[in-house]
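Lest this sound abstract, we let one protein speak, letters for residues, whole numbers for local backbone shapes, and leave readers to judge:
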Amino acid sequence: MIDFAALSPAAQAGVLVGAVLVEAVVLYVGYGALERVAAPPVIETIKNT
């Protein structure tokens, strides 16, 4: 396992920013896929009521 405490503060900040960006991309893609799957039935249900 990588010991991040051994890295310089600038490298630690870079790793943290990179992790946050990766998380944001994963959530963006995941919510986009969920919206494509779930939105049409929900919109159709709202239109029919």
Notes: The helical segments are 9-47.
